[in-house]
What we know:
Blueprint: E1 2-5, H1 10-16, H2 19-48, H3 53-58, E2 60-67, E3 70-77, E4 103-106, E5 109-112, E6 114-116, E7 125-127, E8 130-134, E9 146-151, E10 159-161, H4 167-173, H5 177-203
Amino acid sequence: xxxxxxxxxxxxxxxxxxxxxxxxxxxxxxxxxxxxxxxxxxxxxxxxxxxxxxxxxxxxxxxxxxxxxxxxxxxxxxxxxxxxxxxxxxxxxxxxxxxxxxxxxxxxxxxxxxxxxxxxxxxxxxxxxxxxxxxxxxxxxxxxxxxxxxxxxxxxxxxxxxxxxxxxxxxxxxxxxxxxxxxxxxxxxxxxxxxxxxxxxxxxxxx
Length: 207
C-alpha cells in the first residue's frame, strides 16, 4: 500500500524562484507531509484494528524520488501477515497471561486455547484448537518468542503458526486512506509556500 505526495505545479514555481531553493523546500515539505500522513494512518488503523502504533511504524518505508529535478514522495507499507500473538488479549511482554490462554474442553480433557481480538469493532475470539508455545530460535519472524500455533490433523505434528492480516492490508482496507490523501493534497501547497519563504530568506541571508 502506498500514499503519494506529488507537486503538480512545481515547474511553474521553479521559474519564479531559485530551482535549488525550490527543491530544498519541496523535500522539506514532503518530509513534513510524510509525518502528518503516517500519524493519521496509524490513528485510523488503530481505531479499527487491535494493533500497536510501533508495529504500524515498523511496516512503513518513506521514499523520496526526483524526476527532472521535481521531487515526489511515497509512504509504502510493507510486510507479511502478522503473527496472531500481536492480536493477543495478553498485555506486556513475556509469557501470555491466563486471560490470553482460556480453558477449553477437548476429548483429551481440559486444556488451554488462545484468545485474540483482531478488530476492535468485534469481540475477542477463543481459538479452541490453538495453543501457545515458543517459536524456534533463529527464525526471522519471532523466533524464540511466544507464538500461537495449531496442529495440522490429529497428531502432535506438524503444527503451523497462526497469523492475522498484514499492516499493508489494514491500511489498504481502511476507508480513511482517501481522506488522508485529500488532507495531504490540501496541506501540500500551504506547507510548500511556508518552506519556500523560509529557505529563500535563509538563502539571501535574512535568517
